Amino acid sequence: MSEKKVALPTKMEEVEQGCVLYNIDPIVMKYHYEVDYIHSYAQDSPFFEGLAKGELKGSKCTKCGGTFATPRSHCMTCGAETEWMQLPLTGKVHTYTTCYFGGQEFLAETPFTLIMVEWPGVDTLFLSRLIGVAPEDVKIGMDIQAKFKRLSQFKPTDVYFVPA
Hints:
Blueprint: E1 20-24, E2 27-30, H1 45-52, E3 56-61, E4 67-68, E5 82-87, E6 90-99, E7 112-118, E8 126-130, E9 143-148, E10 159-163
Antiparallel strand pairs: 1-2, 3-4, 3-5, 6-7, 6-9, 7-8, 9-10
């Protein structure tokens, strides 16, 4: 009994896809790319859960007492574990910059103001956006208040600041 061999394809299947060629030297082109991304915040999950509830959470070292405006599981100074702490919803502008270009998340908002928020008794600063004030009116030391998006996306951009 002889076995029949199945013929394998000798040509790659081609699919017509949209692509825009902008330049040839070097080649610059635009094409659509989409992917579902599964992400875990792991030990930082309580920070993002707090944003959804209108809370800001930082961390405090259980050994040396260092306090951090951005969450971390271990102290930057002594390496000991940290615990969660509540941050105030009001603070001051430590420094700022006006951004005239940003990633896709911020394109519709450009120019926008990024600030470093400071709180009394907290050893580090917190990066966020300041809205509701013209870039030329932002001042170091300005009193500010946290605001939260009503529909949380569990992203750092769920919190922003406005003049207090």
